[in-house]
Amino acid sequence: AQKVTQAQTEISVVEKEDVTLDCVYETRDTTYYLFWYKQPPSGELVFLIRRNSFDEQNEISGRYSWNFQKSTSSFNFTITASQVVDSAVYFCALSEAFGNEKLTFGTGTRLTIIP
Amino acid sequence: ETGVTQTPRHLVMGMTNKKSLKCEQHLGHNAMYWYKQSAKKPLELMFVYNFKEQTENNSVPSRFSPECPNSSHLFLHLHTLQPEDSALYLCASSPNGASGGNEQFFGPGTRLTVL
Q: Which chain A residues contact residue B102 at CB under 8 A?
């Protein structure tokens, strides 16, 4: 069975600080995909990134970066120089590589950026 | 705008009412999903439709009845709900529910309150 754990329920940081959101996953599959989604107060989940299990290269997109480490089954997300607009709930998710596109979500981390 | 719309955005209903939630996607996708999001719990996958056929029913009570008349529309018919069914109901779509690895695109959700 697949499982995603986001141990940090809520995080608050002052604007311009860096913040890292943790994600640990469990799966028996050798091939899988990992995702991060952002849920702003408006409700819809916004896709941020997808990572294939064979690609352990870290990725940077503007102020966002992701650290994928298969050895520790972690896929952590860092926001550099946080802004108030980054305030949202962030979800890490896992899906199989073949057969379906079902997502297993973590419980989410509520991030509050204090101006 | 993710290309997935949901109506209504808010719904309050009594336990004896019958109502329906509607989801429409304008992305040309073939798979559609219903999720339930309750406070402090992971998003729970309820139903999956792929090419209009239901491929997943995640042990959802029969008081929730999905309908997928075509690949662009998904409904969730509600009857004799319980107060614990109050939650945010999210609809999502993805290109092909059988291939794996594609991100899902989410609607803004319907906030349901059962009195």
A: 101
Contacts of A98 in chain B (CB under 8 A): 99-100
Which candidate in B43, B51, B90, B110 is best for mutational testing of the A interface (most A CBs within 10 A)? B43
- CB distance B57 to B44 below 8 Å: no
Tokens 């073949």 correspond to what residue? Answer: A98
3-state helix, strand, coil split of chain B in percent (to 5) is 5, 55, 40
What HEC string does A42-106 produce? Answer: CCCCEEEEEEECCCCCCEEECCEEEEEEHHHCEEEEEECCCCHHHCEEEEEEEEECCCCCCEEEC
Over the stretch A5-47, which tens digit does the pLDDT of each residue have? 999 999 999 999 999 999 999 999 888 999 999 999 888 899 9
